[in-house]
Amino acid sequence: MPDIDRSDPPNKRLNHRAPNAMSRLSICVYCGSRPGELPAYSEAARRVGHEIARRGWQLVYGGGRAGLMGVVADAALAAGAPVIGVIPQSLMGRELGHRGLTELHVVQTMHERKMMMAERSDAFLALPGGIGTFEELFEVWSWRQLGYHDKPLGLLNAAGYYDALLAFLDHGKTHGFMSAQQTELLQVDVEPLPLLERLAKLAPLASGPDDYRRI
Ligand code: AMP
After folding, report:
1. Residue 28 C-alpha to ligand 1 middle, in angstroms?
2. To the nearest 5 percent, what fractions of the chain are helix, strand and coil?
3. Which atom, in ligand 1's list, is nearest to the CA of 64?
4. CA nearest ligand 1 atom 10, residue
5. What DSSP designation does 125 have?
6. What is the pTM of this model?
7. How does pLDDT run along the chain (215 residues), one tens digit per residue?
8. Atom of ligand 1 at shortest distance to CA of 139?
């Protein structure tokens, strides 16, 4: 499959992707480019990919075959979901650009990648990962509180991987740097299924158009 050129004009940045009865729910998954130490992390990624397909949804992710990224994409593809990957040209080698996807968008910058992933999605879900995953989750969360989009966000605390982060978020609230309204924007669960269900219920409530032009 040829790579798809990414050259949207700026006015396409203002779009509206609230899902309706006619469209597939599109879930953006952020996760590690490494598999992590525990088999439970790969198992969680496989279940997420499989469930996305089983429900007739679509997966949007970072376009690589490395680590959990490859696991979630392969599970979704194997179970019949369309999978959209978005990867910067410079990472095609390091993150093993996945040539078997429904669409692979090779873009020029990380900024383009993250914006396109957001535009093509109705909800965001972070799985275990490292600095890239943290950055993507926190960025899309801060975009939400700034009003650039109003789509739901989830954190899959597989095998308790994010326990320490969740404790730190409480610390941020205790010390007056975060509000309950902000932390309540993040849906958290240790199990993929209830978390995917919550995101699917919340996604149709997103009513505003995405607007990333001010970023
Ligand atoms: P990691 O969680 O560090 O394994 O990275 C997971 C994914 O996040 C990879 O596809 C990274 O390319 C991506 N990522 C997104 N934004 C960044 C960033 N600012 N720095 C590093 N990785 C990033």
Report:
1. 14
2. 45, 20, 40
3. 10
4. 62
5. E
6. 0.90
7. 445 543 333 333 344 455 555 589 999 999 999 999 999 999 999 999 999 999 999 999 999 999 999 999 999 999 999 999 999 999 999 999 999 999 999 999 999 999 999 999 999 999 999 999 999 999 999 999 999 999 999 999 999 999 999 999 999 999 999 999 999 999 999 999 999 999 999 999 998 888 887 77
8. 16
